[in-house]
Amino acid sequence: MSAGVVSPEKIASALGEHWSPRVIAEVDDAYVKVAKVHGSLAWHSHDDEDEFFYVLAGTLRIEMDDRTIELGAGDAFVVPKGVRHNPVADDECLVMLIERKTTLHTGSTTTDKTRSIAEQLRPV
Amino acid sequence: MSAGVVSPEKIASALGEHWSPRVIAEVDDAYVKVAKVHGSLAWHSHDDEDEFFYVLAGTLRIEMDDRTIELGAGDAFVVPKGVRHNPVADDECLVMLIERKTTLHTGSTTTDKTRSIAEQLRPV
Questions:
Q1: Which end of chain B, N or C, is surrounded by fewer C-beta atoms within 10 Å?
Q2: CB atoms within 10 A of CB B78
């Protein structure tokens, strides 16, 4: 594979830890990340940042205060800034995310799943 | 499908015109776009903006001055700001793009394939 070409699904698939996003690309002031997820993350919101979810494999549910949506492989959804949400995967699921570099992946909520940007930037 | 959930590949597949990107999501100051491409776009660069390519289906070649890379389905690549490039698809290919809202998809080069942001924002 040529330098700089990445396979988001292959990288996500190889991750050993759930809910630990890893940066796979930098696009100006945004990061493209992948994660392997299973179970529930945490209710949180991002006051100033939208968050784009794209499901690479499996199924992801995003619970919000007023409704819940379900994303299958190949589906995408934007959680708008300020909207409280909780991602849930009943079975293991691989996702690609677009977030601003400033975005904290569990918002202002800190749990044992919270990972720093430095942790998310570790080489994959 | 729930409101706001989109399938980038299905939207791209339904497009009737090649090289005519359509915005499918807004993430802060970036647009997520899809396009159906075939043939060669145009040599161009974006002085101040990176451009993220993700191949949904098919194969895309990105020619650059010093090398050419090839992306299969599921592969991603960032063309860094300032790098002259020309996307080429020998067969029809579906792509998802992340670009800043300010990005002109053929850079400072205008060809008969150039589409305004207003055209890219038409409902899909």
A1: N
A2: 20
